[in-house]
Amino acid sequence: MEHLSRDIATLLGLAAVFGYLNHRFLRLPRTIGLVLIAMAASLSALAIDALVPGWGVGPGLRAALIEIDFTAALMHGMLGFLLFAGALHVDLGQLAARRWPIAAMATGGLLMSTAIVGVGIWLAFDLVGHPLPFIYCLVFGALISPTDPVAVLGILKTAKVPASLEAKIAGESLFNDGVGVVVFIILLAMATSEGGSGGAGASMDALAIATLFVQEAVGGAVLGLVAGGIAFWALRSIDEYNLEVIITLALVTVTYEVAHLLHTSGPIAVVVAGLLIGNHGTRLAMSETTRDHLTNFWTLIDEILNAVLFLLIGLEVVMISTAPGLMWVALIAIPLVLCARFVAVAVPIGLMGLWRDFTKGAIPVLTWGGLRGGISVALALSLPAGAEKDAIVTVCYAVVVFSILVQGLTISRLVDKVVPKDNTKVEHD
Questions:
Q1: Is residue 424 part of a domain?
Q2: Which end of the chain is least crowded, N or C, by CB within 10 Å?
């Protein structure tokens, strides 16, 4: 308990100080500024450690981060709240109107990206003389392919994206993250099962894989509908905003925990529940006073947890390996992941474009705006200890940092350049 209190105090203190420095001097988008300043602080600690080894600054920072446990903090702590807060603000009507492109990119597109990245990174590791089992390369493809809803929704607040395109970006990021986690779980089970280390993973047959996917993905969606429906009924039967806010808090925590116990997808469950409460709940089950308090509460939760998450991403730079071979693979991985993302977006949109219209510039914006973030890092850090984990964490971190700092800072300019200024016409995408 003492360690937990100290960790929370440290993280909130650093988030406040770094946030102030960014707002006062850098004036970058908050999430990007926090990552940049935290990285600079971590690299400074490593430099001090190199110059004055006796001080033990670097090892001390690593020990503190290991104690915090990034994976547990995000996947079993913050993620449910962040996804629910994001889903609350997504227009279900816009989402439903674009359900097929979103579903195609969040499933088929994600699987294509996983395969492309897996094959490409396997060749890259082999090229630098650091061979990695093929199944672990596919695991890397699965954890790096989903766009991070926290990063994406944060950047969308600063980019002037047409509503139709914003709905696709937000909707895909909310759902492909849940699907990506499911694919990651399946591939990791294959990698760690008997025979998996040899690259085949043959001990898991097609039926077992299909069953696990349905249990995780479909089970999560059903759980979200049931839990959201119960919360909706409770919210509709009372008019007391303090209690109604507590009900939504309980909805997130209980749903995520039940999903874990039932071995279904917690991320998908809370996204579905959040969409239900954010649309039907706020419109049909709440007074205007409750709606205002609920929106303000979840916006504040979203901002605080976002700040802590991106601070942790920046600090995690001390955890990566700097082996020369891995650095080359990391440099190869950045364009590889972008190419895979382009295919994952262009193929579904190209096929659907035969019978429906899409916003001009949709493909480049969806490709460049598909940011990676904390979920990819958390999944990489959750891998079993070993050479495979060290390699994957390093390459993953490089892709995530490039995504947040470079793509995040330039997406607004890309939107201005490729999306027509006049979007008054009716959209059919």
A1: no
A2: N
Report which residue type is found at 242.
N
Note the Cα 69 to chain centre separation in Å: 17
User: What integer pLDDT is reported at residue 249 of this predicted model?
Assistant: 97
Cβ–Cβ < 8 Å for 67, 7: yes
In this model, does residue 160 exceed pLDDT 90? Answer: no
Instruction: Identify the residue whose tokens are 């510039």.
Output: 361
Binning pLDDT at 50, 70 and 90, where does residue 3 land? low
Whether residue 106 lies inside any domain: the answer is yes
For the ranges 4-18, 53-67, 178-192, 218-232, the lowest mean pLDDT is seen at 53-67
Say whether pLDDT at 199 is over 50. no
Judged by phi (left if over 0) then psi (alpha if -120 to 50, else beta), residue 69 lies in left
Planar angle of CA 235, 288, 98, nearest 5 degrees: 75
Q: Do 132 and 180 form a contact (C-beta atoms < 8 A)? A: no
| Domain contains 429 | no
Kindly state the percentage of the chain with pLDDT values over 90: 58
* Residue 248: pLDDT band with limits 50, 70, 90: very high
350 domain residue, yes or no: yes
- We report the CATH number of the domain holding residue 122 as 1.20.1530.20
Altogether, the residues listed in the chain come to a count of: 429
Q: Which long-range contacts (CB under 8 A, 24 or more apart) does 262-266 make?
A: 262/219, 262/223, 263/215, 263/216, 263/219, 264/215, 264/216, 264/219, 264/220, 264/222, 264/223, 265/178, 265/181, 265/182, 265/216, 265/217, 265/219, 265/220, 265/221, 266/79, 266/80, 266/220
CB 200 within 8 A of CB 135: yes
First and final C-alpha spacing in the chain: 51
The number of folded domains in the chain is 1
Can you tell me the distance from the alpha carbon of 254 to that of 302, in angstroms, rounded to the nearest whole number?
18
More confident residue, 156 or 77: 77
Q: Which two tokens mark 179?
A: 């699907």
Q: In terms of residue numbers, what domain contains 23?
A: 3-418
Q: What is the pTM of this model?
A: 0.89
